[in-house]
Batch of 2 targets.
Target 1
Amino acid sequence: MTHRSRSCRGQTAIEGALVLLVLLVLVLGTLDFGQLLLFHQSLTQRVQAGARYAVVHSYDTDLIKNIVLYNSPTAPPGASAGLFGLTPSQVTITRYDAGDPVNDRIEVTIQDFPMAFYSPLIRGIYRHRPFRVVRPVEGLGATN
């Protein structure tokens, strides 16, 4: 009987380690996926807000970048980074066909945003594509 209980304890330890490993992988994967969704949705919304501000207000790249970074046309005093550590160098504002009533549009892009993952397997290999929104110019600050 003693021999049998020792082998059961060893078997239980191995099964417990395997179950714990699977559980750990599932938890880390869930955290990483949730974080990816959070970053994707938040940064996409920031780019859309910047593009919307750009097409209905006067075209000023600094104000547009501040909208993307801080959700305000003016930067807070002493602020060097915005949402999730986003920096002004990661935000690009481009205007295409300025003055053309049909093709005038503004593009707002966030690029090279570092995604920090918990899982060591995907930590260094995943690079998210740039967050990009292009909107046609509507009025550029015209008031009616």
Target 2
Amino acid sequence: MEKALTLLRQLGLLNAELKIQSENDYIHVPLLRGPFAPELKQLRNDLPDVRLSKYEFLERQQKAIRPLDLLSDKLPPHVLASLPHAVDFVGDIAVVEIPPELEPHRSAIGAAIIKAHKRVKTVLSKSSPVNGVYRLRTYETIGGEARTQTVHKEHGCVYHVDLAKAYFSSRLSYEHVRVASLVKENETVVDMFAGIGPFSILTARMHSNIRVYAVDMNPDAYVLLRRNVLANRVTGKVTPILGDIRQVVNERLKGVADRVIMNLPEKAIEFVDVACKALKTEGGVIHYYQFVDTPEPLDTARNRFTEALRQTDRRLIRISETRIVRGIAPFKYQVVVDAEIK
């Protein structure tokens, strides 16, 4: 039983809000979602007796403590409505955005988050937007240990992270596993803006015969990427490369890829031609990401991508999927376009 729970936690499948229940000779464990094919394969390999079935679970009676519950008698009533509802957890670090009206109470908010979430050792407040060529932001410690380094676990992978030196978002967890699940055996993948490696490493872990070139121009991200490749035992499958992607493709990766990942939503539109050069002559798949703040974000992302593609010598076969990855701000979204290219 403990082995099953450990594996489900590593894969990010365990639903902790519902009760594990037993019936006759079976123990029923609630999942957050149905496992992807590679995850199901791993479950069946490690747990030969596992079965998937529908079951009606009971909620856990003891509800989790919320920071709001701890602050309701400590903050003025008129500012309680402004408390941040979204908390990002990266390893044992919690990241929040504090609105101006709550700045005088940031220490109390940090202490409440640590008390409500026992695994959290540090609370960081965002003190700048993501900016610069390395996609970094600055943080202020408002609770716990003053640090930006941690170890984050996601889908059975381990990532050494430094939020101040290299971009990483735990909100992309589903997108990492979605793209990795679409990759086929024997493919060559170019991860154009790899960062510390969440797309590249999970893809390598989920497939036995794969080649991934993980490229980033941030030296600090490259150091963490190499460390994460070693930590996840994907040396030989993932090749970390430090450099500007345009130069790297022209010099080393022209025509090698079956699949290209373009997770640089601020500027990916400027590199569609580079992604096309990286694809094999017969074509392949591009996963294109973009920030969109128009009333029709899906149509806008598709149109912008197809227009950029027209400026190259490639041809669109079809767009297999366009989906909103996450909300960034009111009426602003990160969108992904999955496109098959000839």
